[in-house]
User: What shape does this take?
Amino acid sequence: MRRVLLAVALLVLTACGAPAPAKQADGSPDLSGVTITAGQSNKLSNRTLLQAAGLDDTPYKINWVDFNATPDMLQAISAGAVDVGGNGGTTGAIQAHYAGVNVKVAAAAAGTGAGAQSSAIVVPKDSPVHSVADLRGKKIAMTFGAGVQYYSVLALKQFGLTTNDVQLVNLTTNAALAAFQSGQVDAWAIWDPVLATAQTQFGARSILDAGQITGLGAQYTFQFTSPAVLADQGKRAAVADFLHRVAQAQDWVNQHPDAWAKAGKSVSGLPDEAANLAAQRQAKKYVPIGPDVIAALQKEADEWVALGTYKEKSDVSTVFTTELNNQVVTS
Assistant: This one.
């Protein structure tokens, strides 16, 4: 109850607004008195990114909060307990939209190059399965509601199959790994860094990665904020700077994958081989939120409706804000 009351109090204070920050000599806002709360749902997220790239020397204070999953973080942003957070995929934005969670996608990054290989359908190294077409009648482990379920449906369509031709098994990551190793499932749809661990430590063999799926297009990751933050001039300015730094840090990761692997190992405890492989597949670029980004999310949302996850189609464009485009995107 205390946490609920605190979240409500924070929401009320945020909704009331705050005076605009003072100007510095160069005309930029003085953010020295501003504090933002940043959430992250995994350790290889914004905090590690900024620290590794040497961009964590912000003129405002950041309070960091860790969450076990993206939906929990989005609920906290909606409640006003967190101001910004992300690195989550498109599926979380769709779930938030249908659940009525009051958040906005403020920045989007598109996977580039090897980044398209960061999700895949894998089989044991000695499996007779060499193509998605060979999965007819087989069991495929995945976490329902995660992006890999959407990718898998498109992959099946690409090879003339439907979900009725295979058995999709809903398992957590740890349970899926155990089932994969014991032979209880024939294939596994998974993403990095667990994918890299499965490939380097357990001999998993990819039969199709996300970059090979026809019609999937760019894979996006999102950064979220709330309407209340966008209405607060001080926090809005700080969040815009924060997200610009995240975009810059991602550019640094693209250019220094080995250094990023080292930074990632220090917080994740991944084996060297897995950390290095996952780092090579983290390439992405922040892009303006526009028609392409919105259309990709709408396409996925409509597919979830076809799967029966949601009852009817809905316009997901309302989850986006383009207000920070010019401040976030790097050249």
Observations:
- The first strand starts at residue 35 and ends at 40.
- The longest helix spans residues 233-255.
